[in-house]
């Protein structure tokens, strides 16, 4: 039988079965959290994956089909950090992630109770699920199990009340072939030494061992008997030497011995001893000797295979020892980094060969199956035993079969014309991968610099790189060589900010590139490209070569910049067209419409446009970067990103930008007039949308396939009757976990969007390839880049099946079409019709099922026409798109009062000061009752009392205002914000800062009165639970 050439590894929350001969991957998907433990049966038939975190899972997979055969939900309260499977493949042991002792919970029919003392031995009792305790118990276990675990947790909390870390763990044994999902037995580990390793004794499957940094536990479980354990004591005085931290433990075959590796290269041997020391019993192992194997090298891997003990070290070497720890072979020239795991190739013949080898015999040459070495440098090296006899070091390095990412990845960009994706990591690398050939195209390593942003130029010849240090580079996209700063010039001379590069934006003709820095120096920098004859960065000869230069920077925001975008080229202005809107035969309006624009959006709620016109000055000087104006675009919500949008809409409203915010809204702003044209509800899967990218359609793919030749989009629109924005797809991501698609035009239809869990944590960046068939995401700290296939057919089918008109939107209101809420909306609409034709009249009415509209630009981007009247269907859509996704709670009102009254000054405000806030700041109440409702009129409607003194009293409290004036219900449990940075405490700090800036006259325009709902924006919870995306 041919040896298997597949290996299993974890990539964030996905298990990957990788054939290193063919390069083919099979994905094991379904986990919400990062996979923290992997296992494999001896015959390689069953694979096990487990994760740690909320909503954790343990899944058993069949390797041949890559399909799950058993899923155990919540095997431990916070998941699993280590597991093992018996040689018979019947039982699985899991070691839980640390949990607070007071929260100790588990799954199973009975409790776990430690009866031993605090010394080195004891036993834990747990009834077996085969006994009477399992009768009548469901998957979630019985009350006895929960009660006893809670009691044990309280005991552990009391025992450890004087210790800083009151954590405990549990160890469980599962019969995964049983129909239920309860453990055979479970025990709590109350030691403060967090256990990190667990394994079965392959020669006695009823015994297992766990170890942490300072303690080793030996456990025994049997049917219908207590779960027993003991922990041998070991101190420096026992062997007259210091004992380093433990790493891993193994059982030695055909003996009662076990061995534990240490972080200093020693091995501790545990064995039974007849010598009475007063600390252990004769039937319990204790430390009998310490062997120094690899001085000053952490023994990170220990395992038994065939007749060898295999040890992998932090020095990158793999060594083979016999069971007396005599060296047999060593592989010290791999040079791939510290060893993290060793796995051997498997074939059916291996078992017979292992039996013969284990039987012993005459001394023979070293031989073993080929093995894989997994290293801390994210490399997987295939090593053959014959390399041991090679003479030259270069011949003993093995073959690298997989190169991963060894550092957090926050930078990602797709080439606009080729099947290339650029990836940048914090270890200083920039890799250019061909994702069709699945091969590394080119690489570049930066010394002492950490890439944080990447962006290809639209022409595809340049790659912009932004670093955490504030440095900015332009590279040639073919070989990643320097284009800017010039060669031979110190890069520090061209570093114009010491804060990380957060965003990079290219002009559509590759003539400019803008860079946003976040940190203490929040600014936008602009770089101008070479002359028109060489604007794509071609390498010239002699005097023909031109250079990029820094044009200027502007500190236009006082909070982090979340969006930066250039305008797109107007239709018909393509590769050979003029740039900057400077047509020879165009008027001023044509120039204004087609000029190149740059906008930025910040968390300070400002939309800033920049003046890109270059002054008539010496070409060696810069004219600086100036703004054309700044507009406040939000009152309560905080913007989370922006995208130039739409691309080719009809009518005069072409210069628009789509702004996302943390209140789950998408708003289209007209840039020249600074007016909001449309507001729709954003997808609400797990958090606010913070990034959006257009997915190239068939027309754009065809255009790129012909080398960038443009078609006349206006002619196409006239022929089809639809704008370029009427159809298409947008790719979006949230700050955490979620990636999704939404169909255009944007109208708030929940059936036109979908989402999936792309990463277990942060979605650091995303990109779309030039064909629109693939999307790429990187997960930051999880060191993973995922490639996703884009298929819009199911999404379009779901949108079509949801119906037309109001049908898709009815799920957004309580009760749907049959609920009282919908009925009341109809009544109010009919009443509005009557009032629009004068309520006090006896004349016959002619109702046309429409009412006057104030939001006249709701469809202006698509049609170029204002709407002055709407029917009930349009009114309903406007309502569900404009209303807040989450209602304001009394807790948020309380936080807002704290912000208004000043930090740590309570939640009460004098009436005069509070009324001043409402009349002078934010959306002010005026005294002109002819045009707007006054504060007194509003108070009369709310409480029936127009007199402010009687309605508010001398002091206005948060609880009184929320319950008595606003009429909010009883307080509900506050949920943690799932959006922008921080939580309620940050919102309080931000609102307080705005008040202080107002009082000191700093910061220009502010929204201090909006602090009453500032806190509301800070405690948003996902509209849909993440578990709904995977279960």
From TrEMBL:
Coiled coil: none annotated. Residues 97-164, 567-594, 693-722, 993-1031 are annotated as: Disordered. It is found in: Cell projection, Cilium. Keywords: Cell projection, Repeat, WD repeat. Pfam families: WD40. Residues 580-594, 698-722 have a biased composition (Basic and acidic residues). Residues 1018-1031 have a biased composition (Polar residues). It comes from the Eukaryota. Residues 136-150 have a biased composition (Acidic residues). Gene3D superfamilies: YVTN repeat-like/Quinoprotein amine dehydrogenase (2.130.10.10). Residues 121-132, 1005-1017 have a biased composition (Low complexity). This is Cilia- and flagella-associated protein 251. It comes from Chromera velia CCMP2878.
């Amino acid at each position: 039988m041919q040896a298997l050439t597949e290996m299993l590894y974890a990539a964030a929350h996905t298990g990957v079965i990788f054939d290193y001969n063919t390069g083919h991957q099979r994905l094991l998907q379904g986990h919400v959290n990062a996979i923290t433990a992997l296992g494999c049966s001896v015959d390689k038939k069953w694979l096990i994956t487990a994760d740690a975190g909320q909503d954790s899972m343990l899944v058993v997979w069949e390797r041949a089909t890559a399909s799950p055969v058993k899923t155990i939900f919540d095997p431990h309260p916070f998941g699993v950090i280590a597991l093992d499977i018996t040689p018979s493949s019947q039982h699985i042991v899991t070691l839980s992630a640390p949990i607070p002792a007071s929260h100790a919970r588990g799954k199973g029919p009975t409790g776990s109770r430690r009866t031993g003392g605090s010394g080195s031995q004891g036993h834990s009792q747990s009834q077996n699920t085969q006994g009477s305790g399992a009768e009548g118990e469901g998957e979630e276990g019985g009350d006895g199990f929960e009660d006893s675990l809670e009691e044990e947790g309280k005991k552990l909390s009391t025992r450890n009340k004087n210790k800083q870390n009151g954590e405990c763990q549990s160890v469980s044994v599962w019969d995964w072939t049983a129909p239920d999902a309860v453990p055979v037995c479970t025990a709590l580990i109350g030691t403060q030494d967090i256990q990190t390793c667990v394994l079965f004794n392959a020669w006695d499957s009823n015994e297992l061992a766990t170890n942490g940094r300072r303690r080793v536990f030996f456990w025994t479980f049997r049917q219908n008997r207590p779960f027993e354990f003991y922990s041998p004591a070991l101190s420096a005085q026992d062997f007259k030497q210091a004992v380093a931290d433990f790493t891993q433990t193994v059982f030695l075959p055909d003996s009662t011995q076990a061995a534990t590796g240490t972080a200093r290269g020693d091995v501790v041997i545990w064995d039974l001893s007849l010598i009475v020391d007063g600390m252990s019993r004769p039937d319990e192992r204790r430390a009998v000797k310490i062997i120094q194997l690899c001085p000053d090298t952490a023994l990170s891997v220990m395992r038994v295979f065939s007749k060898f003990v295999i040890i992998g070290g932090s020095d990158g070497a793999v060594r083979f020892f016999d069971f007396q720890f005599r060296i047999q072979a060593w592989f010290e020239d791999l040079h791939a980094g510290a060893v993290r795991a060793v796995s051997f190739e498997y074939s059916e013949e291996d078992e017979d060969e292992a039996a013969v080898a284990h039987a012993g015999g005459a001394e023979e040459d070293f031989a073993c199956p080929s093995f894989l070495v997994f290293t801390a440098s994210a490399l997987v090296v295939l090593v053959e035993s014959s390399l041991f006899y090679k003479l030259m070091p270069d011949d003993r390095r093995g073959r690298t079969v997989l190169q991963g990412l060894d550092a957090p990845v926050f930078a990602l960009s797709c080439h606009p014309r080729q099947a290339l994706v650029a990836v940048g990591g914090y270890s200083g690398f920039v890799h250019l991968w061909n994702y069709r050939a699945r091969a590394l195209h080119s690489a570049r390593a930066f010394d002492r610099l950490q890439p944080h942003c990447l962006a290809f130029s639209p022409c595809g010849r340049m790659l912009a790189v932004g670093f955490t240090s504030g440095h900015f580079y332009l590279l040639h996209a073919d070989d990643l060589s320097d284009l800017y700063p010039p060669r031979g010039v110190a890069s520090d001379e061209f570093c114009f900010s010491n804060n990380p590069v957060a965003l990079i934006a290219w002009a559509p003709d590759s003539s400019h590139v803008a860079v946003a820095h976040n940190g203490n120096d929040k600014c936008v920098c602009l770089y101008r490209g070479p002359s028109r004859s060489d604007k794509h960065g071609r390498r010239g000869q002699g005097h023909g070569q031109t250079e990029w230069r820094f044009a200027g920077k502007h500190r236009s925001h006082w909070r982090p910049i979340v969006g930066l975008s250039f305008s797109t080229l107007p239709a018909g202005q393509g590769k050979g067209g003029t740039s900057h809107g400077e047509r020879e035969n165009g008027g001023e309006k044509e120039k204004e419409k087609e000029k190149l624009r740059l906008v930025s959006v910040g968390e300070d709620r400002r939309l800033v446009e920049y003046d890109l016109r270059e002054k008539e000055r010496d070409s060696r000087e810069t004219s600086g970067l100036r703004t054309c104006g700044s507009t406040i675009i939000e009152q309560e919500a905080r913007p989370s990103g922006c995208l130039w949008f739409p691309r080719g809409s009809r009518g005069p409203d072409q210069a628009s930008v789509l702004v996302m915010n943390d209140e789950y809204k998408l708003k289209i702003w007209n840039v020249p007039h600074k007016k909001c044209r449309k507001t729709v509800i954003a997808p609400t899967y797990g958090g606010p949308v913070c990034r959006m990218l257009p997915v190239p359609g068939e027309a754009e793919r065809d255009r790129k396939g012909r080398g960038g030749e443009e078609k006349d989009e206006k002619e196409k629109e006239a022929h089809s009757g639809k704008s370029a924005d009427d159809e298409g797809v947008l790719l979006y991501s949230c700050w955490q976990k979620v990636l999704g698609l939404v169909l255009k035009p944007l109208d708030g239809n929940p059936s036109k969007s979908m989402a999936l869990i792309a990463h277990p944590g942060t979605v650091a960046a995303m990109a779309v390839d030039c064909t629109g068939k693939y999307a790429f995401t990187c997960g930051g700290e999880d060191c993973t880049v995922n490639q996703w296939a884009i298929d819009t057919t199911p999404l379009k089918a779901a949108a079509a099946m949801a119906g037309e008109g109001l049908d898709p939107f009815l799920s957004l209101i309580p009760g749907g079409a049959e609920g009282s809420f919908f009925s009341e909306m109809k009544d109010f609409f009919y009443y509005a019709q009557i009032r629009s034709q004068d309520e006090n009249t006896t004349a016959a009415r002619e109702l046309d099922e429409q009412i006057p509209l104030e939001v006249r630009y709701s469809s202006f981007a698509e049609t170029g026409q204002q709407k002055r009247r709407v029917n009930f269907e349009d009114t309903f859509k406007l309502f569900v798109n404009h209303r807040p996704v989450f209602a304001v709670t009394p807790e948020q009102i309380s936080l807002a009062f704290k912000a208004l009254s000043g930090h740590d000054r309570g939640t009460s405000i004098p009436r005069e000061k509070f009324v001043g806030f409402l009349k002078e700041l934010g959306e002010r109440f005026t005294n002109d009752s002819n045009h707007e409702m006054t504060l007194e009129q509003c108070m009369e409607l709310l409480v029936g009392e127009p007199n402010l003194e009687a309605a508010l009293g001398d002091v206005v409290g948060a609880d009184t205002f929320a319950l008595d004036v606003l009429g909010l219900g009883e307080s509900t449990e506050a949920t943690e914000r799932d959006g922008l940075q921080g939580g309620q405490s940050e919102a309080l700090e931000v609102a307080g800062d705005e008040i202080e800036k107002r009082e000191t006259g700093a910061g220009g325009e502010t929204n201090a009165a909006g602090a009453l709902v500032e806190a509301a924006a800070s405690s948003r919870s996902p509209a849909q639970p993440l578990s709904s995306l995977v279960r």
